[in-house]
Amino acid sequence: MYLLFDIGGTKMRVAYSRDGHAFEEPRIVATPQNFAVGMQTIERTARELSAGRPLRGVAGGIAGSLDESKEKVFRAGNLSDWAGKPLKKELEKIFHTEVFLENDAALGALGEAVAGVGKGKAIVAYLTISTGVGGARIVNGEIDESVHGFEPGHQIIDIIGAGKKEQVGTLQNYVSGAALEKRLGMHPGQVINGAVWDELARHLAYGLHNTIVHWSPNLIVLGGSMILGKNGIKIQQVEKYLKEISTVFQELPDIKEATLGDFSALHGALELIRSHSQKQGS
Questions:
Q1: Domain range for 139
Q2: Which of 64, 117, 240, 245 is buried most, with the most CB atoms less than 10 Å from its CB?
C-alpha cells in the first residue's frame, strides 16, 4: 500500500507497508552519490519489495535541508549531486502517486514521538548525534511548523573566533562524530578515553539547555551513534552538567535514549503518510 524510504549520506533504507500500520523488513542499500543512479536504485529496490502490489502513496526523508515547498534538497551535505534536483517530481514520475518528502532527522523525531520512547508525550524534542547533528520538535504527534525546517546542530554555543566562519563554535562542531574524528584522528568508536566522552557530554548539555529554553519540551530524545554506540556520550553525564547550568525553569524535562534504532525515520515516514491520508479522507 505504501512505500517508505530514508536516504542517508551513505545508506538508503526502503520498506513496504501493506496495511499502513506497520512495515515489512526494510531493504538497506548503499546510497549512490549520483542522483540519476539514486533514482534507479530506489525504483529497482521498491519494485522488488512491492512485488507488483499496488502503491497508494510514497513518503520518506533525506539527509539535507529541503526547500520551502519540500520538493528538493538545497543543501545535501554528503550528497552534493542530489542538491537542487527535482527529487519529489522524479519519485512521483516513477511511482505514479503522491510523494511526501521530509528531512530525515525530522522523520526520525516523528517516529520516536509516535512509535518510540516519546509515545504519549505532547512535546518531544529529538536530537540525533552521529556524523552530524540534526533534530526536530514534535507537537501532538506532528512535526512542528517551520519555514525552513530545524537545524539544532548549527546553533552556536561558543562565539570565540566568530569572526572566522570556520571557527564558529556550533554544537555540531563540538559533539558530532565527524568533528571528533577530525580532532583526534580516529573513528569515534575507537575512542575509549572516558575524559573525552565526559567533555562531549558537557558540550551537549549546553546545546540541550538552548533546546529546553527555546522548545520547552516534555521530553528530550537523543539518538545517533554518538549516543547509542558502545563508546558514546552518557545521558547521565549530560543530565549532571545540564542541572549545573540550568536556572530558568523549575523542572527539567526527562532525557531518554532513542529506541527505534536505524529505522526511526521509516516509522516517521509511515506516520507522515498515514496522517496525510487521514486528512484527505476527512
A1: 117-259
A2: 64
